[in-house]
Specification:
Layout: E1 10-17, E2 20-26, E3 36-43, E4 50-51, E5 61-63, E6 74-83, E7 86-87, E8 91-92, E9 96-97, H1 98-101, E10 108-115, E11 118-124, E12 133-142, E13 150-154, E14 158-161, E15 169-179, E16 185-187, E17 194-197
Antiparallel strand pairs: 1-2, 2-5, 3-4, 3-6, 6-7, 6-8, 6-9, 10-11, 11-14, 12-13, 12-15, 15-16, 15-17
Length: about 200
């Protein structure tokens, strides 16, 4: 194929946050004309490239369609630049497995009910938790300079921090962990601490 070649896209990488997956790359600069990009994918099971929903697009990213929302499949994606009849070489991203490679964000704190000796906390995961189960790591401490952090693991989205002192400011933070089939855990990002003062009994 002796036609002149366009420069290929660089920095081709899949970014994934809470199982929302996007292929991104750096723009290809040319003197004149608008460079378009085409993205293909294949799975670990089939060695055959297929079109994604990103053929001859101007933007430098391509979100995975819902049909590719399998968290345990291996996906390989490739992109090339196109201008008129000219194309670049294909550039492949590293193989991507969502359950291994996604970044898990912090859980959402829905409500906190404060009593004189406890905090009743309701949280929800930042993504639809279908594969495996999730658990929450809760750290809490008295908001004093010498306070030591207590930690507990809970499987429920509603839990209680108990045996607290009255009229004391307590802070807590929560992170989520995805528990996979082989009892391998994928930790998530920690929430910003929240603080509540227990009332008098």
């Amino acid at each position: 194929d002796s036609s002149p070649r366009l420069p290929a896209p660089k920095d081709v990488k899949v970014y994934s946050y809470n199982f929302h997956n996007t292929l991104r790359w750096s723009p290809v600069k040319v003197e004149r004309g608008v460079v378009l990009y085409t993205v293909h994918f294949k799975t670990g099971a089939f060695n055959q490239w297929d079109e994604m929903n990103c053929t001859r697009i101007t933007r430098t990213e391509c979100s995975f369609p819902l049909s590719l929302n399998e968290r345990l499949w291996t996906f390989v994606l490739r992109v090339r630049s196109e201008l008129g009849q000219m194309t670049s070489d294909w550039v492949e991203a590293d193989p991507f497995v969502a359950e291994r490679d996604t970044t898990i964000g912090p859980p959402k704190v829905n409500s906190v009910i404060v009593s004189s000796d406890s905090l009743l906390i309701s949280v929800s995961p930042p993504f639809e938790s279908k594969e495996g189960t999730v658990q929450y790591k809760v750290s809490y401490w008295e908001n004093a300079t010498t306070a030591t952090k207590e930690e507990m693991w809970v499987n429920n989205a509603l839990f209680k921090i108990e045996n607290l002192k009255q009229m004391t400011l307590y802070c807590f933070t929560v992170e989520i962990e995805l528990v996979k089939y082989l009892h391998e855990q994928i930790p998530g990002l920690q929430r910003i601490p929240e603080c509540y003062r227990t009332p008098m009994n």
